[in-house]
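Minutes, project check-in
Item: structure for the 140-residue chain
Input as provided by the requester:
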Amino acid sequence: MPATAEAPSAESSEHAHDPAVEGLYEGMFVFDSADYATDGEEYVARVLELIEKAGGSVDADRMWVDGRLAYPIRNKRKGVHHIVLFRMPPGNVKDLDRACKLEDRILRHMVIRPPEEIYHATVEVVNPSEEGDDEVEIPE
C-alpha cells in the first residue's frame, strides 16, 4: 500500500490558519424559544459539541434573535437564533450538517462560508474584545 499523508489533527488546526485545510464558517442554529428559556445553556453546549466532534473549533457564539418565526417549524411559532463562528476542514461540514439534522433540539440550521474579512468582523461583533467599549456613543 502506498504511504498517504495524514490528515491534520484538530489540535494543529487551532494553532495555524491554513485556508487550504481549514475554512471559516458561520452557523445559525434555531431552537424553540420555550425550550431554550428553560435549558438554553444545554442547547448551546450541544451545538458546540457537534462542531467539535466534526473537527471544528469555535471562535465566537451568542444568542442573536429571540422572536416570532416567519413560518411555523415543527409546529413552533417562536424561535431563538444562535450564531456560531467556527473553523473547520471543508470536508467535515457534511458531517456537521448530518449531525444537526439528527439533533431534535435544532429546529433549523444553516452554515455558510463568508469572506475572511467579514468573518473576522463578525467575530468582533459577536464577541467584542475587552479592550474596546461595548457601548456605542450617540452624538448629541
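Outcome recorded: Residues 27 and 111 are 4 Å apart (CA to CA).
No further action items on this chain.
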